[in-house]
Structure formats: C-alpha cells, structure tokens
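During the reporting period the student researcher (J.K.) took over the structure-prediction task from the postdoctoral fellow and processed the backlog of single-chain submissions. One of the processed entries is reproduced below for the supervisory committee.
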Amino acid sequence: MDTDTATVEWTDTRGRPGARGAGRRFGAWCAGLLFAGVSVVVGCRVADSDGITPVPQLLAFLPWLLVPTGAGLLLTLLARWWTGAVWGVALLGLLAWFIEPYGTTGEPTGPPVAEVRVLTSNVEFGRGTDALIAAVRREKPDLVFVQECEYSCDAALRRALAAHYPHREAVEGGGSEGSVILSAFPLEPAPGVPGTMGMPGAVADVRGHAVRLQLAHPMPPLPDQVGLWREELGVLRDAAAGADGTPVVLAGDFNASQDHAAFRRILDTGLRDAARLAGDDRTATWPARTAPAFGVQIDHVLVSEEFAAHDARFLDLADTDHRALVVDLTLHGAG
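J.K. obtained the following structure tokens:
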C-alpha cells in the first residue's frame, strides 16, 4: 500500500476521517451501550439489591447477560478500544462469579429417620391439573405443593387423589389465588403466609417427627408491582426465620431466582435449595415452552439443615407455563 492509497483509506479528499475510523467509533459506541446496560444490572447484584424496574426482571436472566457482554467485548477488540476491553473483561468476571450457586450446603449430622419425596407445580390457572394428576400418580410423592389451583383444580385433586393423599391444607380461590398442599402424612393446621395469592401452611407428622410445611407463591415482579413482590418475599423470609428449630419444607413458585436479593434473604435464614444440593441449581423451570434451553429457575423446594437432598427432577407438564419439580429428601434426627 502506497501513501496515496493509505490516505484514501483513512481520510476523504477534504481530510476528514474515512470509513474505517467511523466504523471503529461506532463499534466502540455500541459496546459502551451494551456494557452500560449490563453494568446497571451487575451493579445492583454487587450491591445486593434488586433495584427498580427493569432491574428485577433482568436479574432473573443474569447468566444470559454473558451474551451482550461477550458481544460488546468483541466490538471493543475490533474497535481497538482497550479501556472498553478492560470494562468488558471485568463484567465477564463478575458475571462468572455471580453465576456460581448461592447459599449454604452440608450434610445433616443426625441419623436418617425418614425418606420424603416432594413435588411442587404451578398449574397455570388450573389448566395443567390433568397433567399434574398423571405426574403425581407416576412419581408418588409424599408431599404435593400446588399453585394456581383454582376451584375446578381443587375439586379434581379431591376426586382423583384423596385416597392416597387424605390430608390437605388449602387456600381456595379463583384464577391464580388458589393453592393446595396434599400430604400422605397426617397434617395439623398452621398459620399460612398472607399474600395476594394463597400460601397455606401446615405441620406434618413425618414418622413421628414434626415438619413445618409452607407453600410459597408471592406476586411476580411486574413493572408496577416490584414493591409488593419484594414485600411478599420478605414475609416468606420471616416465616422461614420463625421456624424455632422445627424442620422446614418451603416449596412453590417463588417468582424469584438466586440472583434476586429478596430470594437470597430467604436462603440467608439457613434454608437450602434442594435442587442446588442435588446439583441442578440453574435448571430452568419457567417459561416451560423454552426450558431447559432458555429460562430461569423460579420454582424451588427449600429445606432446613435437617434434610439431605439426593435427586432433583424437572417434569414437563402439558398446559402450564411452569415445569414441575420433584426432589427426594432424607430427614435426619438430632445429631
């Protein structure tokens, strides 16, 4: 390339920057926009805060922020914007750090006293009831937590499953408000958690050992209801903290993942995510139509330290936007 060719390549006849320089600036500008958006979300994660809309909604998909961050890093390299490249690498490192599982682990110290299988399912306004009944008959769980079980769902569960699950606690309601706990173990009534949607509670007699059961179904973080979502997760956190040494199973559709600060507050009480204990902490449960390739795990079974988790399975049920979760637990006695 001679001097004249280089001049044509980098500047026009009036001495203004040419196409290559403009392209680099545009690439750097696009990378900066990508990094700025990701930085807001990651910054809230660093600050242990869910922020305001749209941060809570984006936090649910935190691992997927690797995609725009990677694209931005590529643009910085093409644009030779080295400060931006450092920015991108820092974001990638933070995302990789926060993608790691959150919460405590460890095996119970006492002797095993009972095996317990738990199934939780959001049946989407009762539409997935028939698929849930088939799954319950196939999986044979000891405890079943059902969210969005409206009146017809509640009646169908009574007809189909009462023989094997004679014990139940429910909050009746239409649409998304109804919820049911079914149990093969004897149940005693216990205060549930107040909320927009039903969240019943009970105490199960598991082979002579009392276990506190609580269904979770707080409001989702809709753009105009983030405060209510945070408040209802806080009430669940208070319920978990008030168990007073009784073994706990807290299960349902939390409308939150481990990347939400309000959900981590619940884990900070000492409860453990059974799917995480079984090695499936990032397996998506919603939306079912794109899971497991794309989605977020918002359906959880949380257990106290008296439980060990051996297996977690995610079931695709027809006519609902959530996958069901089945976990196999072992209850341990005092060490």
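The committee noted the following: The longest strand covers residues 112-122.
J.K. will present the remaining backlog at the next meeting.
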